[in-house]
Hints:
The complex is a heterodimer of chains A (492) and B (95). Chain A is an alpha/beta fold and 492 residues long. Helix content of chain A is 38%, strand content 13%.
Amino acid sequence: MLTDLSLVEARDGLRRRAFSAAELTEAHLDAVAALNPRLNAFITVSADRARAQAVAADAKLAAGESGPLLGLPLAIKDLFCTEGVRTTAGSRILEPFVPPYESTVTANLLRDGAVFLGKANLDEFAMGSSNMTSAFGPVQNPWTRADGAALVPGGSSGGSCAAVAARMALGATATDTGGSIRQPASFCGIAGVKPTYGRCSRWGIVAFASSLDQAGPVARTVGDCAVMLGSMAGFDPRDSTSADRPVPDFAAACRRGVRGLRIGVPREYRSDAMPAEIEALWQQGLAWLRDGGAEIVDVSLPHTKYGLATYYIVAPAEASSNLARYDGVRFGRRVEGEDLTELYERTRAEGFGAEVRRRIMIGTYVLSAGYYDAYYLRAQKVRALILRDFTDAYAQVDALLTPTAPSAAFAQGDKMDDPVAMYLNDVFTVPASMAGVPGLSVPAGLDPQGLPLGLQVLGRPFDEETVFAVGAVLERAAGFRHLPAIRAGAPA
Amino acid sequence: MSLDPATVRRIARLARIHVDPAEAEQLAGEMNGILGWIEQLNEVDVDGIDPLTGAAQMAMRLRADTVTDGGIPELVLGNAPDRAGAFYAVPKVVE
């Protein structure tokens, strides 16, 4: 089936003219029509636009052109503004919002010929690890377990990852603020890459926490992620934190191997509470890298345990500031009030969901007079120490290997009554976000319930190439061929 | 530090989010849970450490102070919930 191809295989098939872009897009739209009512991975499906883009791609292919993503159907996380296509951020407050402009990352993908199938579901304003906070309903993980419970895809990029895992799209854009690419990629058995902060432009991405937000790709192979990131990345003068550096050939880096590399094992990531199968998979991953010629080195990241608490000050503080723009005046939903203040307060109370309101409140509190130094300033200092941990570690090693998440996918509704328990999902991903360093999750094995588990590779700032090299070696060694029960072409 | 419902209502006012009394009670509990967990940062020795404001380890770029965009009022106002001519419309602020 066309939907079983990897992105690179589909690209090569189009170039060989084995099938047309129109056929490829239609196969994916059929998969969306069949599976989305069950999985809810897309908030908006832009079928007509996708068909028109595919026809245009076929014309270019016939003329001998070959953009890096020409004719390849992708899902776009509904946090990226898409010109003329509704962009909700998973929030009721943006339900009617149709951007008059295109985000830089999606514009780069369109420049390279991609076809957009639609906008993928996510936790509201990317705040969550389960996709349960979307105002457009939860996403179901295409993987199932024996007890039949519907599982979460992780979050916040849960719709993106579910769409790719279920073969509704060849790849998808995602964003990572504290783990929102890597954790759902692990839960859905696919690959996902959070590049270095500054590698992809944030212009036109609905802002959550501006010092942490970073866009990246999710796809079914590490090589597919490399191709997508090559298109998404690049300097953008419209984002003052965009890095003015050339975009390396990430796909070539996937073929480098790990011979001679030093791979660090951060001892603070080990805990007695870690499930045995995750510890075993981690050891297996280290053995694969050793077999590939890497040297394994114990390292210390002493402030790891403070990563989450630091994150839950810094991210809500920035969110409370960023989300001040949703006031019911300039765009989005409005709830009328007697006066302007009541209009603001009613609009925001009804427009934001419970988790978003909670985080705005926490952020407002830690930034308020009298508490700024005790919370926010202290958190920024701890953040400096977390970055120093990574800088020290990278003086000894080229990359780090850890588990991606402390568990496999859990059931919808679990952890909902305890925000802190939900936050602990990101314990292994948050420190790298705080430090801005690149990371990748690659599917490496199954837990005893048959659910996928990922391994995380972290690298030096702007050294995604080594991250891809290590990830590709793990992918080849793991030979992960398992498939989710709910996918295009599977018996219902 | 422990938040009472009155403090929660004050924060809600600052955040411009309407909170009714029952909600303030519940939010106080949830926020105290989160803030209590965050207290662990007090054990970290941060003496002499400069705060890190962002992950971009570079100087902020400046651009020329010139107009680079504009003249598109219909696009800008296209998503407004209410408008009057080329302006956003809100409830009367000054009597």
